[in-house]
Amino acid sequence: MEIHFEIGNQCLLKCRHCSSMASELKEQKKYPEQDMIQLIKSIEGKKDIYLTGGEPLLYTNLDRMLNNLRIQISDIRLGMFTTGIVWDSGEARSISEEYAGKLADCDLKVCYLSVYSHLEQEHDWMTRLQGSYKMLNESICHLQAVGIETRFNSVVTRKNMFYFNDIIEFAENIGITEVRILKLIKHGRAKECWDEIGVTEQYYKNVIRNALKRKNKLRITASGAIDMLSCRNDCKRNICPAGAELIYVVNNGDIFPCASVKKKAEYKIGNIGEIDIVKKWYMFQTELNGEMLC
Ligand code: SF4
Q: Hey, whose CA ends up nearest to atom 7 of ligand 1?
C-alpha cells in the first residue's frame, strides 16, 4: 500500500509539465503531522510512505518529520519524490553528501528523482533552471553513497519521446533501480505548454512498447497504461491501484485515489482531518472496479 503526502507546494524549478504549478506557490501543508500519523496507523499492513510536493526537500524541519514518522510508526518504508535540488546558503544546490547522510539516518529509504532527459541541455530546458541537470546528478551520487535507493520518475513529452530508451540506458549506467514512465497530464503548466510538450496516447504507448523491447536491467513501471504494464511495482497488470493500493493526500489534507485525479472533485474521498475518513475510504473502495482513473 502506498500513501503519498504533499507536504508543501513550493519548488525551485519551473518545470514545463508541472501539474501543481509549484514555484508560484509557497505554502507548507495545512494538515497537522498528527493527522498523518493517525491515518497511516489506521491502515493495516505494510505501507510505503512517500513525501511529495512541490519539493519536499524545502519543507521546514523535514528531518524532524521523517524521524517522527519513523519513531511513531513501525511498519512503514519512507520515500520521497524530489527534484534533487535544495535551497542552501541563498542558492539552489544539490543534496550534499552530508545532508543525504542525515536523510538516511532518518530512515529515508528511496527517492524518485524527476529526470526529463539524459542530455543536460534538454533536462535544463524542461526545468527552466540552468545547472539543474548537474545538481541532479550530484544529488543522485550523494544519495547512493549513503545507501538511499534511487529511481527515476520520467514524464514522456514531445521532446523526449523519440529517445526515451536513452534515458533508460543512462539510468542503468548510474545504478538506478527503476524507471517510472509517466503519462503527461494536461493540468496546470502542462496545459499552458501543451503545444511544446504534449503527446498523444498513441505516442505515449509507443514509448512504453519500445522500452519493453529492451533487455532492461532495471524495473520499468508506467502510469496510465495498465493494459501494457503495471502502474506500480507489486501491482497487477490490468488493475489500476488508485484508491485500493494507493491514496494521495494533497496540501490541504484532501484525499484522492491518485495524484492524476487530484484536480477532479468527483474523486475526492474526504479530508485527513475527518474522524470517519478511513470508513469513507473503505466506502470509496467499494465503487472501484480496477479501471484506470487517469
Ligand atoms: S489512475 Fe491508476 S493507472 Fe493512472 S496513474 Fe493513477 S494508479 Fe496509475
A: 242
Which residue, judged by its Cα, is nearest atom 2 of ligand 1? 240
**pLDDT tens string for the chain (294 positions)?**
999 999 998 888 989 998 766 555 678 899 999 999 999 999 999 999 999 988 999 998 899 999 999 999 999 999 999 999 999 989 999 999 999 999 999 999 999 999 999 999 999 999 999 999 999 999 999 999 999 999 999 999 999 999 999 999 999 999 999 999 999 988 888 999 999 999 999 999 999 999 999 999 999 999 999 999 999 988 878 899 999 999 999 999 999 999 999 999 999 999 999 999 999 999 999 999 999 999
**What CA–CA distance (Å, rounded) separates 138 from 96?**
8
Atom index in ligand 1 nearest the CA of residue 261 equals: 1
DSSP 8-state assignment for residue 261: G
Q: How many CB atoms lie within 10 A of CB 162?
A: 12
Which atom of ligand 1 lies nearest, measured to the CA of 226? 3
Cell numbers placing 171: 539510468
| Cβ partners under 8 Å of residue 64, min gap 6 | none
Residue 293 Cβ contacting ligand 1 at under 6 Å = yes
242 lines ligand 1 (CB under 6 A): yes
Q: Which CATH superfamily is domain 2-286 in?
A: Aldolase class I (3.20.20.70)
Q: Give nearest CA residue, ligand 1 atom 5.
A: 223
* pTM: predicted TM-score of the whole model, two decimal places: 0.95
Sequence ranges of the domains in the chain: 2-286
CB 59 within 8 A of CB 28: yes
Ligand 1 centre to CA of 231 (Å) is 6
